[in-house]
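Morning. Coffee machine broken again, so started the prediction first thing and wrote up yesterday's gels while waiting. Chain of 211 residues, entered below exactly as on the submission form.
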Amino acid sequence: MAAKRILFTILLISITLSLLNCKNNDSKTVNIDDLLKEENYEGENVGSSLDVFVSTFLKSHPNIDNNDITSENARKDFARDFDEKLKSSFLNDMPFSCLRVGRDIITKKISASFSVGATSKDSSYTINVFLDAPVDEENSVKLKQYTDYKIKGIITRPKDDIDEKYDLGPTHVSFNKENLYDSRVLRYCTKINVHRLKLDLKEFTEIPQSK
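Came back before lunch.
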C-alpha cells in the first residue's frame, strides 16, 4: 500500500509539472515583473545614442502596428536609417556584451559574437543588435564570454544577395509587439532585433562589473 501511494504521488507531481510547462510554453505574454525587475526599473542604456535613435524613430512612425503594410514600411525605413546611422559609428560608445568566441568548423576561422541593446525607461520598446567580428588567435584568448566591453571598430552590414534578388526586404531587422501585464494595466513593448552585422574589431577594453 505504501509503495502504491508513493507511485501515485510521483505520478501526480509529474502531471502537475507537465501542465505547468505546457502553460508556460503556450503563453505569449511576458510578466512585467520579470522584464522590469522592480517597480523603479530605469531601463537600459537610457539616453544612449541607440536609445535616442530608436525613440526618435518610433515617434516618427506612430502607425507601425496599424496593419501588415505599415509594419513592413516601418521595417524598411528603420533598416535604411539604421544602415545610414552606422556610418557615423554611433554605437561605438556603448557597452558591448561578448556572447561567444569560437572557431568555424569548416573554415577554421575564429570569430566573436557581440550584442548591444537598449530599453526605454517605461519599457515601451527594447532593441538588441547582434554583430560578428573576426578575431585572431591572440585576441581570441583575451575575450571573455558574457563580459561587457568598450570597443573600437567599424560596424557594417554586408549586402544580402538573396534579399535583393527576391525583394524580401530587410530580413535582418524584425519588429514584434509583446503584451506586458501587471496587476493594474496591460502594456505593450515593441521588440526590435537587428542581426547579421559585421564588426571590424580594432580594440576592446573590458568594463569592470559593478559590485
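Strands lie at 29-31, 96-103, 110-119, 125-134, 147-156, 173-181, 186-206. Going to sketch it on the whiteboard this afternoon.
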